[in-house]
Write a structure and sequence with these properties.
By secondary structure, this protein is an all-alpha fold. The protein has 3 helices and no strands.
């Protein structure tokens, strides 16, 4: 986290490519993984479940 806010995955990617210290790099990579996981969870949560989508059989 930087300045009390979580970094965007894009910012983290840039930071990872520019980091030469292995300890800091490891920490940044872990933070990037967590940011990507969170983004995927948010994306999956925003999609409605398949059983909520009517099929042609249900409509008949």
């Amino acid at each position: 986290m930087a300045n009390g806010r979580q970094k965007d995955w894009r910012e983290l990617c840039i930071a990872v490519t520019n980091e030469s210290d292995s300890t800091k790099l490891s920490s940044l990579v872990q933070e990037l993984i967590e940011a990507l996981d969170q983004g995927e969870r948010n994306w999956r949560h925003s999609i409605c479940p398949l059983d909520a989508i009517p099929t042609s059989r249900d409509a008949a």
